[in-house]
Amino acid sequence: MELYDTVSPLDYRYYGDDREFFERLRPYVSEGANIRYMLKVEAALVRELASRGICPEKAAEEVEIACSEITPQEVYEEERRIQHNIRALVNCIRRRISPESRPYVHLFATSCDIMDTATALRFKELTGDVLIPDLIGLEELLIGMAKETADVPQIGRTHGQHAEPITFGFALALYIDRLGGRIERMEEARRNLRGKFSGAVGAYNALSLLDGVDPSEFERSLLGRLGLKPSGVSSQIVEPEYLTDLVYSAVSCFSVLANLADDMRHLMRTEIAEVRDRRGEERVGSSTMPHKVNPKDFENVKSMWKAFMPRIVTVLMDQISEHQRDLTNSASGRFVTEIFTALDYAVHRTTRTLQNIEVDRERVRENLEMSKGFIVAEPLYILLALDGYPDAYDRVKKLVAEARRSGRPLPEVVREDEEIRPFFEGISEEKRKVLRDPSFYTGEARRRTLETCEYWEGRCKVLKEVGHAHHN
Fold it and tell me: How far apart are CA 249 and CA 228, in angstroms?
C-alpha cells in the first residue's frame, strides 16, 4: 500500500511524511510495534516459568527466538483465519517451536494479561524514550529564549487590550512553568503505568492451580522482568485509571502548546509584528499574494490540538467496562497511540518553528510606546492613593477620559489638575520616572523570569538523569 493510499492525515501528511520523525516513533506507535510488545510479554512469561522450573530452559529459549522472528503479517493472516487476535499470536509462536515447548506458551494467561501489559510497557517506553525528551528539548529552548529577553519590556495584554508592561521573557516564563508542570505530570503517570497477570477475571484462578506458588508474587516477578508493577486489583483488565492519567497528562500538555502557538501567531499579526519568521523570504504565504508570510506552523499546532484534545472524552468513556470486562473499549482503545503521535509531532513542529523566529525588539518597544500615555494610569492612581488622595482610582479614570478627549498625554493632564497637583508633586522623582517611561514599570518580571528559568533548568536536568537511568 502506498503512503498516499492511507486514510489518516497523520500517516500521509505528518507522521508518515517525515522520514526521521517516522523512524523515531515507529518502534512504539505502529501496529507492528504493538505486536512486538505483546510478543515480548509472551516471551517473558515462558522465561518466568523456566526460572521456576515449571518448564524446561529450552522452551524459554525457543519461544524467545520465535518471538523475535514473527512478523505482524503472520499474526494478521492467522487472525483472519481464526478471528481472535491473541490466539493468533499464540498460534504463530507455537508453530515455530518444538512440540515439547508448546504447552507453556500463553500458559495461565488471558488475552488482557498480554495486551494490557504490553500496552503499559509500550506507552511507558514511548513517553520515556521519545516524548518526554522531546518536551524537555522544547522546554530548554524556551528557557534560552526567555533568558535572552528577560529584560526586554513588552506591553502586557489582557482581553486583547494593552494592560501594563511585562517583559518578553516573562511572557515566555509563563509557558516554561506550565509546560514543565505537564512534563513532570507525564513522567509521574508514565512511571505509574501498570501491567497484570491475574487471569480471566483477575482472581488468579489459573495460577492457583500451581502448587507452592503465590500467584501475586508470580505476577510481581513476571512484571518486574518488564520493568512494570502490577495493577492494584485487576479484573480481566488493568484498572483503566493508570492509562487515563497518562493520556490526560498528554492532552493537557497539548493544550499548553496550543495556547503558546496561539499567542505566538498573534504576535506575528501585521498590526503587532513583535515576532517574525527568519525564513519569511523563502516561504510561500499565499497562492496569489506574494507579500504574505503566514504563521502556518503555529496554526498547524492549534489545528492538531483541536483534532486530538476531544479524544480525552473517549479515553474517559473507556474507563467504563461491564463487570470484569467487555469489548466496548476494544476499537476505541486502538486510537490512543494517535494522541501521543500527534502530540509529539506538535512538539517537533513547535520546536523547529521557535528555532527560526526572532523577536523584533524595536517593534516591541513601539507597541509599548503606543499606549505610553495611558498605561501609567495604574501606577499613578496607586502612588496618589499611597500619598493619601482619598478617591485616586475614580479621579484618575476621569483624567484618562479627559486625556483621550484632548489627545494629550495623561501625565500632562494630571499636572494641570489643581486638585491632584499637590499630591502629584509629593511623588518622589524616582517614582515619577515610572510615569514618564512605563518601560520601568515591569515590577518583578525580570527576576521572576530568571528564577523560573533557573528552577526548570534544574528540573530538566533531573528529568534527563531519570531518563538516562531508565536506559541503563
Answer: 19
What sign has the CA pseudo-torsion 184, 189, 192, 195?
A: negative
C-alpha 171/C-alpha 472 separation (Å) is 38
Q: Which of 195, 229, 33 is nearest to 120 (CA)?
A: 195
Separation of alpha carbons 306 and 311, rounded Å: 10
**At a CB cut-off of 8 Å and minimum separation 6, what does 377 contact?**
396, 397, 400, 410
Question: Taking the mean position of all CA atoms in its chain, how far away is CA 306?
Answer: 14
**Residue 422: CB atoms within 10 Å:** 11
* CA 421 – CA 27 distance, rounded (Å): 72
Same domain, 191 and 279: yes
> Which residues make Cβ contacts (< 8 Å) with residue 409, sequence separation at least 6?
372, 373, 403
Domain total in the chain: 3
Mean pLDDT of the chain: 93
Helices (H) and strands (E) in the chain, counts: 23, 6
> Within this chain, do residues 76 and 182 fall inside the same structural domain, yes or no?
no
Residue 227 lies in a domain: no
Whether the pTM exceeds 0.70: the reply is yes
- Per residue in 322-347, pLDDT tens? 998 888 989 999 999 999 999 999 99
Q: Spell out the long-range contacts of 289-295 with Cβ–Cβ below 8 A and sequence spacing 24 or more.
A: 295/264, 295/265, 295/268
Catalytic sites, residue numbers: 159, 286
Distance CA 262, CA 174 (A): 14
pLDDT cut 70: percent of the chain above it: 96
